[in-house]
Amino acid sequence: MGLLLHFCKLEKRWQLLQRCDIIFKRHMKKQAVSPTKLAEVGRLLEAKEGKYDTGQLFLHRIFGYRGVILFPWTARVYDRDLHNPRKPTTTTTTATATATPTACTTEASPLRFNEGSGDSSGTVGATQSDDAPTAWNTTNTATDPQSTQSMGTAKPATNANASSSVDAKEVKGKTQTFYQVLIDTRDCPYIRAQTEAVTFLGNQDSNRSLYAIPGLDYVAHDDIMPYSSTDKHPLQHELFDKFLSYAPDAEPPFVGQDTLKAWQEKNHPWLDMSDVHKETTENVRITVIPFYMGCRETPASSVYWWRYCIRLENLGELSVQLRERHWRIFSLSGTLETVRGRGVVGQEPILSPRLPAFQYSSHVSLQAPSGHMWGTFRLEREDGYAFDCKIPPFSLESKPDDVSTPPVGTPTNDDVD
Predict the structure, then answer these.
(1) Residue 198 CB neighbour total at 10 angstroms
(2) Is the pLDDT reported for residue 94 higher than 80?
(3) Domain total for the chain?
(4) Which Pfam families does this entry report, sorted A to Z (predicted)?
(5) Buried b (16+ CB within 10 A) or exposed e, 82-93
(6) Less crowded by CB within 10 Å, the N or C end of the chain?
(7) In angstroms, how far is the first alpha carbon of the chain from the final one?
(8) What is the mean pLDDT of residues 302-318?
């Protein structure tokens, strides 16, 4: 009997081993269907201290996507950490590599935009929403060593109610180079940022719809990792061949066409970036870049529109998750509005050491030509500690409207009211 029982146990073990073997083979077959492949994209170049030229190929230091530089911008960077000795400042050391970079994929993080209603209070007159196409910002950027000229000061709101929430000290701005770039469409599904961040208003006076041009981004100088490629078509984007042409004797071997210069001059008003604002709280850095979009005239009133791009970046070793947002919006007309809500753009992103950054953009409209915004993000650390991360105050300034016709873009699904 004992021998029979032992035989039965062996038979069951053999059946289990056979079953495990089948499961293992099925798992191997599933992996073989879509194996991970690494493809060479080019050779890394030494980082430059001066400006990169039009046509320079690069990898984004934080998000890892492939891109190409169209033209530079000069922005005033207001870093509040530099004016607060109690806060540690973080800069990056540019590494020089000669190895061959390879294309790789990261976790896809598609962003969806919902109505940013939340609980709002205050005088009606300023409209803000977090339902716009997401965007971008800067991270780990040290001040450009060749750009240290003082360009002015960022002043807080002068309204009595507003000044209680905004630091009263003035922050001097220093110039830094940013770039308008094209993103490789093959990488768009895998980067942790919305790739339709550059938006503009339609021309119809009765239509307040927003339109987006896919695959445009703004990148800080220190986020550029330049590389070279022997491929005549190294980037996939519908505007690549329209803006750039292959010139094997040039360096970089892609030069701007007349169409790029004409496009830049024609659409300068709604592409223009001028100010960048940064502040760090509890090892989480917030960067904000506001853009003026234009004015909508109606017989009853004038409505001024801005978009603002925000990057959240975790500089610490513990993961944090964004839980809530709290905005204050002050208009020159004298109104002050408070907006509260869960997350941003319908998400509560986690900023981990492996995926430390998250980018998005939104829109705000005022019935006045200027105003201010500031606020906090409520963040929760993985050890349970919760804190309010300051959003640096930034100005909303209008500019003379340009009558030039913007390019045809893709309508967004946002109805920002």
Answers:
(1) 25
(2) no
(3) 1
(4) DUF525 (PF04379)
(5) eeeeebeeeeee
(6) N
(7) 82
(8) 94
Residue type, 167: D
Q: How many CA atoms lie within 13 A of 408 on its CB side?
A: 0
Could you tell me the pLDDT band of residue 359, with boundaries at 50, 70 and 90?
A: very high
| 346 Rama class: left (phi>0) / alpha (psi -120 to 50) / beta | left
**Nearest partner of 377 among 330, 307, 294, 314, judged by Cα:** 314
Which of these, 306, 305, 310, lies nearest to 276 by C-alpha position? Answer: 310
Return the pLDDT at 196: 77
Question: Mean pLDDT across the chain, nearest whole number?
Answer: 75
Which tokens is 322 given?
Answer: 């964004």
pLDDT for the residue 315: 95
Q: Which letter, b or e, does each residue of 149-165 get, where b requires 16 or more Cβ atoms within 10 Å of its Cβ? A: eebeebebbebeebeeb
Q: Output the domain CATH number for residue 384.
A: 2.60.40.1470
Whole-angstrom distance, CA of residue 196 vs CA of residue 241: 20
pLDDT at site 390: 97
What is the mean predicted confidence (pLDDT) over 395-410? Answer: 63
pLDDT value of position 68: 97
DSSP 166-230: S--S-EEEEEEEEEEEEEPTTTGGGSSB-SB--EEE-S-TT---EEE-TTEEEEEGGGEEEEE--
Say if CB 296 and CB 303 are below 8 A apart: yes
Q: What is the mean pLDDT of residues 60-66?
A: 92
> With left for phi above 0 and alpha for psi between -120 and 50, is residue 205 left, alpha or beta?
alpha
| Closest residue by Cα to residue 374 from 344, 336, 341 | 336
- On whether residue 183 sits in a domain, the answer given is yes
137: in domain:
yes
Stated as kind and residue range, the H or E segment containing 26 is helix 2-33
Residue 29 lies in a domain: no
Tell whether 356 is covered by a domain: yes
The per-residue pLDDT for range 209-253, each reduced to its tens digit, is 778 888 999 999 999 999 999 999 999 999 999 999 999 999 999
59: enclosing H helix or E strand? strand 57-60
> The tokens of 154 are what?
């960022």
Among candidate residues 354, 397, 374, the one with its CA nearest the CA of residue 281: 374
Cβ-contact 260, 243 below 8 angstroms: yes
Looking at residue 362, its amino acid is S
DSSP assignment, residue 80?
G
This prediction has a pTM of: 0.70
Residue 381 backbone phi and psi in degrees, to 5: -80, 160
